Amino acid sequence: MGTATALGEFKEATTPERSRTYVFPDGEVTIRNMTKVCVRPSGSHRVETANGEKYIVSPGWLAIKVDADAWSF
Question: N or C end of the chain, less CB within 10 A?
Answer without folding.
Answer: N
